[in-house]
Sequence to fold (119 residues):
Amino acid sequence: MLKEALEDFLKDAGLELDDVLSVMDENPKGILESLLLRVDISEEEARKLETVLSAKQLNLLILVLHIFYYANPSGYYKGRLIYPPRYQVIGPDSKVTHEGLYIIIKSLGLTPHGFTNKF
Fold:
């Protein structure tokens, strides 16, 4: 599971999630720009997502996308297939799909207020 892989990755690196997130961009504009580079959603959808997720939650999404889906195109972590698998998350344009983002949000256990898979 993605959440377990993240916990193991951070443990192996000797890092705490809060430490990593604390050095990431907290500027909403910067976070949304980073998200739009990686996810195939419109600016309007990104702004809606910003209203239902905190800056820390958005940064967590960006971190997970980078570690497990962009920097690791194999889709495996320590010899095990990461769930959700890359083919369910990444679209033909090499960006995370709208549906893939929803799956990742659920996999991480994020519970944004008013969130639906329609944003």
Summary: The chain has a mean pLDDT of 89. Residues 2 and 84 are 7 Å apart (CA to CA).
